[in-house]
């Protein structure tokens, strides 16, 4: 692997032990995956923020690196933490956990990281440009940035993303290389895919089939049933679910995503995948629950438009189940200025920042059954938090929150 | 003694008895960070401790949080003395670097048996077979 003089100096420890360790990580990964050289990154998003996943050892590791002098050189944001850093007490999250979580955030702050904790950096001002090289970790953000925005990032682990931030560069392999951005699978969808939640279920099914491959979705035919206008929201749900059930970091949608029309974007040996029905996906992700204790919207973090829609739905109503809308703190502030947070809170719901149900210690909240519109949340909640899940549209979930039980008779949900 | 040559992932020198796994190892959920014991159901090394061993396995698998499990083991003095892979991947490699565990890959791991006395030194892996009666 070719290293520039400055990079060799970093590796030799001339910029101190913290930079040396970071460069060792980058060079080792470059060697393992056959990188020709390193590439400068525009921004970094670091996972490994929740104390639930880090534990005391992870906290110790971050503190040690920060003490050694680790400082980031490029704009760097964080993935969701385990608690809402301002409002954890009102949400009933345990104090000991919240204090350790704050220690984690402090260690990151010491490294010069912007301590915004969100899985949707692209919704709060960090919008990568086409062709930008990044080192992002959160799986749905990686898939969205690569596929919808045309940026280039591998699915980084926490330490490797942090190493890239400390060195300002990463090894050029995998999704940084055009060759590896070609589709390995061509997906034909032979059933109706209408609502956002359907795209999540489709993503769950395709992710299971393609693993770490690059799927290419063919449009036309009955693909999106001809009537669905694909919004970014749909692609986001598709991305999040594929990145959770599989290890998809990039996908293409014919005529929609920026690289889908490039010459040779489909590998000659690409395998065909046919999705004839979403039923199996719904059956795996959703149980026919009646009673609902907890409703979760905002996985990935809710957009401003979603908060507006939720506020409108809940105005003048009152929820019986615990309702969490998870979103980025910046988005919450904007929704607050528009009066939407107040309307959701008047109905008894919570607009929760900095965290999400995948990384918060949900098992401490005493809820057993959950309704959500997120296939990704439905995929993780049973194993991570011991929750039973019913999957449906946002309106169905909000209605379940108001009634304290599932009332929709729509088939499929 | 057999001398095997690999590729350095984390530079260092270490010595220990080999613990050889024919199957990949996933550290998150696969190894108990409090005890160093392999707990993955159905894994061929289930119930064995990785502490102080030269852990030999084809490659890593599972969640990226596994890197922190290695760090946690090292923090408690329960980490393997060294890691030897046929083909390394990101999770274990990053774990080795942040935990200062010597690691080599591209090693012909079929040459190593559980119980062998193994020294890892940079890119070299020196293997001393120990007879059943304890003689070399």
Quick summary of this structure?
The complex is a heterodimer of chains A (413) and B (136). With 413 residues, chain A is of the alpha/beta class.
Describe it:
Chain A is an alpha/beta fold and 413 residues long. In chain A, 38% of the residues lie in helices and 15% in strands. Chain A has 14 helices and 14 strands. Chain A has helices spanning 5-11, 17-32, 51-67, 95-110, 139-147, 158-167, 196-210, 232-245, 279-285, 304-314, 329-337, 340-346, 375-385, 394-403; strands spanning 38-40, 44-46, 76-78, 135-136, 169-171, 183-189, 215-217, 252-253, 266-275, 294-302, 322-327, 350-353, 369-372, 388-391. In chain A, helix 7 (196-210) packs parallel to helix 8 (232-245), helix 7 (196-210) crosses helix 9 and helix 10 (304-314) packs across helix 12 (340-346). Chain A is globular. Chain B is of the alpha/beta class and 136 residues long. Chain B has an eight-stranded mixed beta sheet. The model of chain B has no long low-confidence stretch (mean pLDDT 93). Classes of the chains: A alpha/beta (413), B alpha/beta (136). Chain A binds chain B through residues 21, 24-25, 28-29, 31-33, 47-48, 53-58, 60-61, 137, 157-160, and chain B through 7, 9-10, 33, 64-65, 67-68, 71-72, 75, 88-91, 93-94, 97-98, 105.
